[in-house]
Design goal:
This protein is mainly β and 335 residues long. It has one helix and 27 strands. The strands form six sheets. Strands 1, 2, 3, 5, 6, 8, 9, 10, 11 and 12 form a ten-stranded mixed sheet that branches. Strands 15, 16, 18, 19 and 20 form a five-stranded antiparallel sheet that branches. A four-stranded antiparallel sheet has the order 24-23-26-27. A hairpin with a 4-residue loop joins strand 18 and strand 19. This is T9SS type A sorting domain-containing protein. Pfam families: Por_Secre_tail. Keywords: Signal.
């Protein structure tokens, strides 16, 4: 039986075609692709073997290739606003002018999730240089980006895992890659609310590698709280992608306390007698420093309390730096 083909213009979709991109946008009304039905938008065809939901999604087409090595992707990249999981066939048709140096005889589909980390082509795709397309059938999980690249090429860094674990009073971050192409460094970012991020440091990568590499970074003595971490993986050409976010609840014996939190007026910072803050900053969500005091100024505070009565209600980050440079940060809520 021939597969049924869905004409998107007749299904209540909004389809917009432009020189740089084509777009498919679905609404909140229930829309399922029946098994065996093919939906095509801008030369991307999806043929699921099970009923698939395309509600509240948007597919955009870009002609900007993803950098890779030895060859980047073709100049045809699809992005989905909501990650898609389905079983079935994906087919990408292309123009020869979009090959971007790739050998179409060994073209393979490459895909990434919301973290923008691409899989290494597995030679499971079937290229058809006569019809100028490449296809692959299988289980597709959490797909946010689809494109194609030459077999043997990698699209930036393939992250195997990323783990945050407490070791005594520190948090040890470890991650592994199975493939690196044109990679420059990993930037380690930290947050106390999962929304506002600060840079802790960076670790140089191996640049180009086809074997598993392991990296680590130690966040020394973070406050007892929930902490969030992510990696910004930067290539030599300045392009970057973020890893998935990892969080961990830290309990330690290094007692630094802020109270009350939430705070309405006066905030007290408590540290062990052997340690005193060298500097205190309170930073807004936009990154602006709304309060700062050095050691001598802090010593003059009545009862060691900071007056925050005039501070606008909202969420802030408080940073305490010790004399040895150790930085502690925590989320601060102002009522």
């Amino acid at each position: 039986m021939k597969a049924k083909h869905t004409l998107i213009a007749l299904l209540g979709f909004t389809a917009v075609f432009a020189e740089a991109q084509a777009q498919l946008k679905t609404g909140a009304n229930s829309f399922f692709i029946s098994p065996g039905t093919t939906v095509t938008v801008s030369s991307l065809s999806l043929t699921p073997t099970e009923a698939t939901n395309l509600n509240n999604n948007e597919i955009t087409h870009s002609d900007v290739a993803i950098a890779g090595k030895p060859t980047g992707s073709i100049n045809r990249v699809y992005n989905l606003a909501s990650p898609l999981t389905f079983k079935g066939k994906v087919l990408i048709a292309y123009l020869e002018s979009e090959l971007n140096g790739n050998n179409e005889n060994v073209l393979q589909i490459a895909h990434a999730g919301p973290d923008h980390i691409y899989t290494i082509p597995t030679n499971k795709s079937t290229p058809d240089p006569i019809l100028n397309n490449v296809s692959e059938s299988g289980d597709w999980t959490n797909i946010s980006t689809l494109t194609a690249t030459e077999s043997g090429s990698g699209l930036p860094v393939t992250l195997v895992d990323f783990v945050a674990a407490q070791k005594e009073n520190d948090v040890v971050l470890t991650w592994s890659t199975s493939f690196e192409a044109n990679s420059d460094f990993f930037e380690i970012q930290h947050s106390t609310d999962g929304k506002n991020w600060l840079v802790l440091g960076d670790v140089n990568s191996n640049g180009d590698s086809k074997i598993e590499r392991t990296y680590s970074y130690v966040h020394e003595r973070p406050l007892a709280a929930v902490h969030y971490y992510r990696l910004r993986m930067v290539d030599n050409d300045g392009k970057f992608a973020f890893s998935r976010i990892r969080n961990i609840r830290v309990a330690n014996n290094f007692a630094v306390a802020f109270h009350p939190n939430p705070v309405a007026d006066w905030l007290t910072i408590e540290m062990p007698d052997a340690r005193q803050p060298e500097n205190v900053k309170i930073v807004s969500k936009s990154g602006s420093v709304v309060y700062e005091a050095n050691k001598s100024e802090l010593q003059k505070l009545p009862d060691g309390a900071i007056n925050l009565k005039q501070l606008t209600a909202g969420i802030y980050v408080i940073q305490v730096r010790e004399q040895d440079g150790t930085l502690h940060s925590s989320k601060l809520i102002k009522n």
